[in-house]
């Protein structure tokens, strides 16, 4: 019986990967989303998406694991993480101390993850309880383990995030509203928020740095239906949004990897290599 169950799950995984590689929009059949939901100790999810053109400005040196250093620029939003959240603020973290990250469980998703969920930093980072690991291990240990029992394992976590990322395609929604990555071109924050609201019927949350969009976050109920990330009447949310973003912001283009690598190599001689990076 166990052998039959494992074989069936392997077949589902293969079908899922084939569809995803051939057609990104086919990531609409999340295994976790299809199961009957059970209550867990959180209230909703945040799908945090990062804009590489802004994040990569912080890069001090290149390495093979850094998506900022690729030969082809990342001119689309990439996934930062899928985070269980509390409605009153804050989030659970590191919820299953005995669980270690198993890369084998997401091996079939790796080509998709490398494109849409790359690390934009070099080196390992902290996971939980003194451990260290790659970016995916950090997101799973810190956030993915807190989705239990809705999210059972690594495959559930990463495939569910990819499902939401594909179904609610932020980059495509902004392009339909004529919002493109262009150095120096400024867009009204209200225009960006309205474009997402028009596409998905819900308000996002923006995080900015130095006048540029750094993250765009979508919020979901526990059944993966979209919900507002706060509301215009929520004073704390409105204040937070104003404190992060000016009225007009940019979406800077991501530099070509080879140009970035050459520029950073010259700077790296005087910049100590960080052992790791801190992620939310």
Automatic annotation (TrEMBL):
Q: Where is the signal peptide?
A: 1-29
Domain of life of the native organism: Eukaryota
Q: What is any Pfam family matched here? A: Ribonuclease_T2
Please list the residues that make up the active site.
80, 139, 143
Keyword hit for Signal: yes
Record SUPFAM superfamilies: Ribonuclease Rh-like (SSF55895)
Its Gene Ontology cellular component terms are:
extracellular region
> Does Lyase count among this protein's keywords?
yes
What name does UniProt use for this protein?
Uncharacterized protein
What keywords does the record list, in alphabetical order?
A: Disulfide bond, Endonuclease, Hydrolase, Lyase, Nuclease, Signal
In alphabetical order, the GO MF annotations are: hydrolase activity; ribonuclease T2 activity; RNA binding
């Amino acid at each position: 019986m166990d052998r039959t169950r494992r074989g069936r799950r392997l077949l589902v995984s293969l079908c899922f990967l084939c569809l995803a590689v051939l057609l990104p929009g086919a990531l609409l059949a999340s295994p976790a989303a299809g199961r009957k939901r059970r209550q867990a100790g959180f209230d909703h999810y945040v799908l945090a998406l990062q804009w590489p053109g802004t994040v990569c400005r912080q890069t001090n040196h290149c390495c093979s694991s850094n998506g900022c250093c690729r030969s082809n620029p990342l001119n689309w939003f990439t996934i930062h993480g899928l985070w269980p959240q509390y409605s009153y603020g804050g989030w659970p973290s590191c919820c299953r101390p005995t669980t270690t990250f198993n890369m084998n469980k997401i091996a079939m998703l790796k080509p998709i993850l490398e494109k849409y969920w790359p690390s934009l930093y070099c080196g390992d980072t902290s996971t939980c309880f003194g451990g260290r690991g790659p970016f995916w291990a950090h997101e799973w240990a810190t956030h993915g383990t807190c989705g239990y029992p809705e999210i059972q394992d690594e495959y559930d976590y990463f495939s569910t995030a990819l499902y939401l990322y594909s179904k609610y395609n932020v980059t495509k929604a902004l392009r339909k509203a004529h919002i493109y990555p262009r150095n120096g071109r400024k867009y009204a924050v209200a225009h960006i928020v309205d474009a997402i609201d028009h596409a998905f019927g819900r308000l996002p949350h923006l995080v900015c740095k130095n006048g540029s969009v750094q993250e765009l976050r979508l919020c979901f109920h526990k059944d993966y239906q979209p919900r507002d990330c706060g509301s215009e009447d929520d004073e704390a949310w409105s204040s937070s949004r104003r404190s992060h973003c000016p009225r007009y912001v940019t979406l800077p283009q991501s530099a070509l990897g080879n140009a970035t690598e050459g520029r950073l190599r010259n700077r790296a001689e005087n910049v100590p290599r960080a052992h790791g990076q801190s992620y939310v």
